[in-house]
Structure formats: C-alpha cells, structure tokens
Amino acid sequence: MSPVPGDGAPAIEIRGLSKVYGSSETAVRAIDGIDLQIGRGEMVAIMGPSGSGKSTLLHLLGALETPTSGSIALAGRRFEGLDDRELTLLRREGIGFVFQFFNLLPSLTAEENVLLPALIAGRRDDAIAARARELLERVGLGGRASHLPAELSGGEQQRVSIARALLMEPELVLADEPTGNLDSRSEAQVLELLAELNRTEGHTIVMVTHDLDAAAVAGRVVFMRDGRIESDGLARGLLDWLRRLREELPLP
Ligand SMILES: Nc1ncnc2c1ncn2[C@@H]1O[C@H](COP(=O)(O)OP(=O)(O)O)[C@@H](O)[C@H]1O
Ligand SMILES: [Mg+2]
Q1: 135: CATH
Q2: 122-144: pLDDT as tens digits
Q3: pLDDT tens track for 183-206
Q4: Which ligand is closest in space to the CA of residue 30?
Q5: pTM of the entire structure?
Q6: How far is the CA of 165 from the centre of ligand 1 (A)?
Q7: Residue nearest to atom 27 of ligand 1 (CA)
Q8: For residue 52, which ligand has an atom nearest its CA?
Q9: Nearest residue CA, atom 12 of ligand 1?
Q10: What is the domain count for the chain?
Q11: Above pLDDT 70, what percent of the chain?
Q12: d(CA 222, CA 46)
C-alpha cells in the first residue's frame, strides 16, 4: 500500500467511532463512541465480554463495515470518502486478516493458499512466488508447501493463514480470536509466532482474544464493555479482566 499521506502518522487513528445496528427502539450501539490511537509496530489485544463490540471494531478497522459516525485512518489515510475500488485495494493490500477458523481453501495447497491474495490481485510473478515460499519458511512450514489444509494440523493451518495475511506486506494485521480453535500447544506456537513477527519485523497487530495468555504476549490490552473502551493498558486491562473472572466464577 502506498505510504501517502504521512509517514509520521500512527498506524491507526480512530475518532468518535460509532456503529449502530438497526433503528429506533431495537437499535444496538455495537460501538458507542470510541477514540483510539495505535502506533506503528504495536501489538494490541482487544478483550471484553461477549457482545461488547470486539468483532465489530475489528470489522470497522478492516473496512469490512462502514461506521455510523466517526472516522478511522490507517497510516494517515482516512477510510471515509474512499470509493469501492479504493476500499477493495485497501483491504487487499493494506490489511492482512487472520480468522479463528483459518479460512483456507481446501482444494489449494499451503503455498497456493499463501499466494491467493496475489492471484486475486492479478499478480503471478516470480517475486511474489518467492515471497510466498519465504513466508512459509518464516512460519516454520517450508517442508509443507504442497500439503493440502486437510493434511495439516490446526496450528499449521493457522500458520499458513498468517503467512497469507503477510503476503502483500500489509500496514496492519487483524486477528479475530486466532487461537480460539487451537489446542494449547498450537496456541502457544501461534502466539509466539505473532509476537515474534511483531517484534522482529515491526508488524502492527490488533488481535481480539478471550485468552489471558494471548493478551499477555501483546504489549497493550484494550478492554471493551458495551461498545466502549473501559480500560487501555496492559496492567489495568489484565487486572480488570482477572477481577471480573473472580466476580463471575464462584471461586472459594
Ligand atoms: N450484523 C449485526 N446486526 C445486528 N446486531 C449486530 C450485528 N453484529 C453485531 N451485532 C450486535 O452488536 C453487539 C456487539 O457484537 P460483536 O461486535 O460481535 O461483539 P463481540 O465480538 O465482542 O462478542 C452485540 O450486541 C451484537 O448482537
Ligand atoms: Mg466476536
């Protein structure tokens, strides 16, 4: 994605963001007036109870949905005013998505799945093919390039999808419960991989998670409730979450 207009701009700048579903009495304020700034190279975990607006926030950040009001800018570039073609380009090249259920195409090999965003963009050159192979190496799956998803474990499939998310060198990586469907060992590997990509290659990562271990690898935890940011910052976010767990679970 072109770095215009401002290299000094934060990765993400959100102002007065709201998203309302439905109208009048049945309206749901899924996002209820959020201001948030995320610097380049930050890794942020979004936590909060079910229904608090985490996925909606991620969809708005991914330009998969349009806000009811407020603004979002990615590297200084505001989403509003972009036409459909520009939004498609933004999603394709500016943002990498990692989903809970991997979303790999079952009939394509690992390598073809990683290459998919380039194929959709009409790119079939040697450079992008080499990048796909490098990324598979990077996520520890160099030896599995020609395997189909069904021949890979859940953790391996998620690592393929992380490689796919990085193919177009996105400004931002969004992950919605990326370890929600993994066993604990695969979960630890995927988290370590995300943290390492963040640390060594400076990818900006925003990850929704229910998991304390996942949140702990992020440098910052934003805690949401009822469509608002309730706390922002590692220590406070974790403490609030633990306090709530204690309230909600009948521990001795
Ligand atoms: N497409 C939709 N239509 C109507 N209501 C929605 C839609 N998507 C989400 N909501 C509502 O918005 C609120 C926030 O949902 P969501 O962002 O999915 O929460 P979370 O991911 O934190 O569980 C919930 O009350 C949910 O029911
Ligand atoms: Mg959700």
Answers
A1: 3.40.50.300
A2: 999 999 999 999 999 999 999 99
A3: 989 998 999 999 999 999 889 999
A4: 1
A5: 0.89
A6: 24
A7: 51
A8: 1
A9: 30
A10: 1
A11: 92
A12: 5
